[in-house]
Write a structure and sequence with these properties.
The complex is a heterodimer.
Chain A (H helix, E strand, L loop, with lengths): L6 H20 L3 E8 L4 E5 L6 H21 L7 E6 L2 E7 L7 E8 L4 H21 L1
Antiparallel strand pairs in A: 1-2, 1-5, 3-4, 4-5
Chain B lengths: L2 E7 L6 H8 L5 E6 L10 E12 L5 E6 L7 H8 L4 E7 L5 H11 L1 H4 L4 E6 L9 H10 L6 E3 L5 H24 L1
Parallel strand pairs in B: 1-4, 1-5, 5-6, 6-7
Antiparallel strand pairs in B: 2-3, 3-4
Classes of the chains: A alpha+beta, B alpha/beta.
């Protein structure tokens, strides 16, 4: 499993886990969520067993880095959110970094959640995480 | 004008990003982020998606150079990037704990390209870490039933990296000639 064995991450991971659990529990259209470091390690996750968290964390970090590289090359500034619109759902990626701690929050939604609802929920979750982590 | 896709692969810290930066005519596209896995490698940053650079050959053909992430958790990128690749350059850090195992891992991961004689192995840091020697790498590749040229390389030196590409292209031409005959 791709995880960080760093003591500092334990407290951070607990905060992140609580928020992703709450996000999934309060939105029926949100199937799961993962918070990963930008180099592909899982910090917290709430997904069903059909999804490999380790693989998703690595893929999320690659997508996030590609999004940043494309934004940079296209001269449109720093990348913020990334959305994959698929046949039966969406994957939303948002930056959830605090200072030097770089993280990505990835959320899997099905079609019951509209894009607007999903974005609102994901951004609210991100803000709650950042408030708590920055308050530490 | 033809365009060819080449892959630079190898473990984290083998010099893939440096090699592409050494020869690319354009500012390389890089996807480096902070490395949190310091016990595995002391590098401050690591590539998590790809590196990209370009080189124009003397007769006008263009090489598109793709560097893979090194860690196996990104092996999905290895598969994506190797689609349509003409050849692969496997870079080895000879100061790593087990450079021969590293070579075996990447030759195996890119076996489809390697087995058609479209590969080369470049071994770095041989000046400070001469063991295992080049012969040992050749022998290890032979034990995998693979015929791959192995050479010492300093990826910081443009001429070293270009020489590696030249040898790779001779390999590819020989492979294509063999394929045409069979």
């Amino acid at each position: 499993m791709n995880t960080i064995a760093d003591k500092d991450y334990a407290a951070e991971a607990a905060v992140c886990q609580r928020h992703v659990d709450s996000l999934v529990a309060t939105h029926t259209g949100i199937r799961g969520a993962v918070i990963a470091t930008t180099d592909g390690f899982e910090i917290a996750a709430h997904v069903d067993s059909s999804v490999s968290v380790a693989k998703l964390a690595a893929m999320v970090s690659s997508l996030s880095a590609l999004s940043e590289a494309v934004s940079r090359e296209s001269k449109i500034g720093s990348s913020r959110d990334l959305m994959i619109d698929a046949e039966s759902g969406r994957l939303l990626l948002v930056d959830a970094s605090t200072g030097a701690r770089k993280r990505v929050l990835a959320v899997l939604c099905d079609n019951r959640e509209t894009l607007g609802q999903a974005l609102w929920a994901v951004r609210s979750c991100r803000e709650a995480i950042l408030r708590e982590l920055e308050g530490h | 004008m033809k365009e060819y896709k080449l892959i630079f692969t190898g473990r984290m810290g083998a010099g893939k990003t440096t090699a592409i930066a050494a020869i690319s005519e354009i500012p390389p596209v890089q996807t480096d982020v902070t490395n949190n896995d310091r016990p595995a490698h002391a590098k401050a940053t690591t590539t998590v998606a790809l590196d990209y650079g370009e080189v124009t050959l003397p007769h006008g053909d263009k090489l598109r150079l793709y560097g893979t992430p090194g860690q196996s958790r990104f092996d999905f990128m290895w598969k994506i990037l190797s689609e349509g690749a003409l050849g692969v350059i496997v870079l080895i850090d000879n100061s790593a704990p087990d450079p021969l195992a590293d070579m075996r891992e990447y030759l195996d991961a890119f076996r489809d390209i390697v087995s058609s004689s479209r590969a080369i192995v470049g071994v770095g840091r041989c000046d400070t870490h001469p063991v295992p020697g080049i012969d040992s790498f050749c022998e290890a590749a032979k034990e995998m039933a693979l015929s791959v040229p192995v050479m010492s390389v300093d990826v910081r030196r443009r001429e070293d990296v270009l020489l590696m590409l030249e040898v790779l292209f001779h390999q590819i031409e020989a492979a294509e000639a063999d394929e045409a005959l069979s």
